[in-house]
Specification:
The chain starts with 5 loop residues before the first strand and ends with a helix. It has two domains: about 5-100, Roll (Ubiquitin-like (UB roll)); about 110-430, Creatine Kinase, Chain A, domain 2 (2-Layer Sandwich), CATH 3.30.590. The protein has helices at about 25-35, 55-60, 105-120, 155-160, 160-170, 200-215, 265-275, 275-285, 335-350, 375-380, 385-390, 395-410, 420-430; strands at about 5-10, 20-25, 35-40, 65-70, 75, 85-95, 120-135, 175-180, 190-195, 195, 220-225, 240-245, 305, 315-320, 320-325. It is globular. With about 425 residues, it is α+β, with helices and mostly antiparallel strands. The strands form two sheets. Strands 7, 8, 9, 10, 11, 12, 13, 14 and 15 form a nine-stranded mixed β-sheet that branches.
């Protein structure tokens, strides 16, 4: 602990952005014991701290205790300055009586993971695929030039020193990059990591996204997880790979007795995800800009599924006695905590249902069309009983109201504006913040 000069005490907000305070070494031990009392309405603000006065609680609320979870303390070398070393610790959001507050997205994941363990004897393993754009801060010129070649090693090798430095920086924080590569579009890159258990997967994803942005910012570049910075640049996703495991360490999605090796439990879990896919869209595609990505080539448009078929929304990946589900619905702009929480809620609903029907593979004729706008997705989300039970009415109301006040109301004033003005509005809203 004494090796760090500053410690960031952090809670991920509803957008997946870091909120908190920086504590100098002199006061670190004290604050790690007591936590800090801070205004918690900041956790539900928009991506640029847009504030809503429509939620009375935001106006009258007292502070909450941000209590450090010491198991999450990691070095954050992307924040170091000269010889000054920095660490980060994630905090729980606690009421005055010491009980968790339901507005913490990390807390929601922990609660649902507990239900998965207690009710089904299962744990979740997750691996995200991080796609993002990098461009010069002043000119927005894509890093690597205008090359649009998938897995283009020439583009990667031309910037290899920077990505070696990025990998080694993440490594010092215990964030182990499994692979990196150029993606299909100019200035687009991808990082991949090994699967992690439960809350560790969400924490890792949160740190990776913020580390990438800070790393490139200090080198004169803007790294953005905005889904579509410009229609001419392309689209970024956050593919969500996950599997279920028993207490004995067995993959519960595997059934050796079946020809396809996919267990009935896995099929029921997938059926739950498909049934609630339209509601999940609000969590997986949480910005106006995300809907420039959906309903395009190589991006989901309906709640379809498949085995080893890239056009399904969910895809079973089967190899070497291993089975997991990849969902291509999440946008790069998504909060990883909400992605995991939404899948836990939907998947467990599939396991709990007395009867749940899994539609035929790639049944495009009968599949439901995914929402085409954030407005439509929010309407489905706030009326989905499974999501209401999992997230609580208070969180759902704050989430939906915040999206309207922070993004949609202003956006809807532009509905007759030229396309150039609309995308400029979206870049101002999301390019730097996400």
């Amino acid at each position: 602990m004494d090796s760090f000069d500053y410690v960031h005490m952090v809670i991920p907000d509803v957008n997946g952005l870091p909120r908190g305070q920086v504590i100098p070494r002199r006061f670190v031990r004290q604050k790690l014991k007591t936590g800090v009392d801070l205004y918690y309405g900041v956790l539900m603000m928009g991506p640029n701290s847009e504030y809503t006065m429509k939620i009375e609680e935001y106006v009258t609320m007292e502070n909450r205790n941000w209590k450090p979870d010491l198991s999450t303390l990691i070095a954050t070398p992307w924040c170091d300055s000269g010889s000054r070393r920095t660490a980060s610790v994630l905090c729980d959001l606690l009421k005055r009586d010491g009980t968790p507050d339901g507005l913490s997205t990390r807390g929601i994941v922990q609660q649902l993971l507990g239900k998965l363990r207690d009710n089904f004897g299962l744990t979740l393993k997750v691996a995200f695929e991080f796609e993002f754009f990098v461009m010069k801060e002043d000119t927005l010129e894509p890093l690597g030039g205008d090359s649009c070649q998938f897995f283009d090693l020439r583009r990667t090798e031309g910037n290899i020193d920077m990505f070696y430095d990025l990998c080694e920086t993440l490594e010092k924080a215990g964030l182990h990059v499994m692979s990196f590569s150029s993606e299909f579009y100019a200035g687009q890159w991808e990082l991949n990591f090994d699967p992690q258990d439960g809350i560790k997967a969400a924490d890792m994803a949160f740190h990776v996204k913020n580390a990438v942005k800070s790393f490139f910012k200090r080198r004169g570049y803007t790294a953005t997880f905005m889904s579509v910075p410009d229609d001419s640049l392309g689209r970024s996703g956050l593919h969500f790979n996950h599997s279920l495991w028993t207490a004995a360490g067995q993959n519960a999605m595997v059934d050796d007795q079946r020809k396809d090796a996919i267990s009935d439990l896995a099929l029921r879990w997938n059926a739950g995800i498909l049934k609630h896919a339209r509601a999940l869209t609000a969590l997986c595609c949480p910005t106006i800009n995300c809907y420039r990505r959906l309903h395009r080539v190589a991006c989901p448009s309906k709640n379809t599924w498949a085995v080893e078929h890239r056009t399904g929304m969910t895809r079973f990946r089967v190899s070497d006695n291993n089975v997991f589900i990849e969902n291509r619905l999440p946008s790069s702009a998504a909060n990883p905590y909400l992605v995991i929480a939404g899948h836990l809620a939907a998947g467990m609903a599939g396991l709990e249902a007395a009867e749940i029907e899994l539609p035929p593979e790639m049944d495009l004729e009968h599949a439901q069309k995914l929402p085409v706008s954030l407005e439509e997705a929010l309407d489905v989300f706030e009326n989905d009983e499974v999501m209401l039970e999992a997230f609580g009415q208070r969180f759902v109301s704050c989430f939906v109201t915040g999206k309207w006040d922070g993004e949609l109301t202003e956006y809807n004033l532009l509905w007759t504006a030229p396309e150039e003005k609309i995308i400029k509005f979206e870049r101002k809203k999301y390019l730097e913040s996400l």
